[in-house]
Amino acid sequence: MLIAEDDPSVRKAVQRVLALEKYDVTAVNDGQAALEELSKTRFDLAVLDVMMPFADGLTVCREARHRGIQTPILLLTARVEVGDRVAGLDAGADDYLVKPFVVDELLARCRALLRRSVSATTQSTLTVGTLVLNPLTREVHRGERALSLTKTEFDLLELLMQQPNTVVSRDYIYETIWGYDFETNSKSLDVYIGYLRRKTEEEGESRLLYTIRGVGYTVKES
Fold it and tell me: What angle do CA 215, 193, 119 make, to 5 degrees?
C-alpha cells in the first residue's frame, strides 16, 4: 500500500495504523514521489493527500490514470465542499475522506477499496445484448465498436451490468461509485447516465440503459 502525505505527523500516524493492521506500507511525502512509486510498483491501494508539493493529489490521480495505472486511490483532504469531492473523483480517485477523520473509517474505506479491487480482478466479461464490458482490461464494446469511457462512466456501467435486468437504486449507486454521502437528489447521476446512453447508442443501436423513475436505473435488452 502506498501512502503520500506531506505532513510528517499525519503520514507517520497513518503509516503506523496501517502497519498495525498488517499492511505492507510504502510512505512518501510529495506527489512527484507518489507518481514515481505508482509507475514502478504495483500497489493494491494508494492513499494520497490532496495538497502536496511538486504535484497535488488530483494531478497524481489524473496522470496515473492517463498512464493506465489502475491502482485504487483514496484521497485525503481538508476540503469539504461537494465540488471538491467531485473534482477528486472525476480526476480518477475511487474514494474521498475528509480530514480530520476517524481511524476506523479510514480502515473501513481501505478494506472496501481492496475488496472492490479483488472482485474486479476475478470477474469475467460482462455482457448485455451486444454490449460487452471487460473489467480486467477496462474495455467496452457495442458490437464491433469500441466505446471510450471516462473512469466514472466505466465504473457506473460496470455496476449496472453486474446486475442486469435488476433496478439499482440511486442511493446504492452513489454509495458504491462515489463512496460517500453524496447529495442523492442532485442531477450528477442523471448526467452520467445521459453520457452513457449517447455513447452506447451512438450509431443508432437500441437502448440498453433505462431509468426507473423515482427508484434508479437498470441495464437490459429491450
Answer: 85
Question: Domains in the chain, ordered, with CATH?
Answer: 2-121 (3.40.50.2300), 123-219 (1.10.10.10)
Question: How many angstroms separate the CA atoms of 34 and 48, rounded?
Answer: 8
Sheet strand arrangement including 216-219: 168-169, 216-219, 209-212
Residue type for position 45? L
The answer to whether the CB of 74 falls within 8 A of the CB of 41 is: no
Has this prediction a pTM greater than 0.70?
no
Write the pLDDT tens digit of every residue in 130-171.
999 998 888 999 999 999 998 889 989 998 998 888 888 888
Question: What is the DSSP code string of 100-129?
Answer: S--HHHHHHHHHHHHHHHHHHHH---EEET
Partnered with residue 19 across adjacent β-strands are none
Query: In the chain, what is the greatest distance between 2 CA atoms, to the nearest angstrom?
Result: 56
Q: How many residues does the chain have?
A: 222
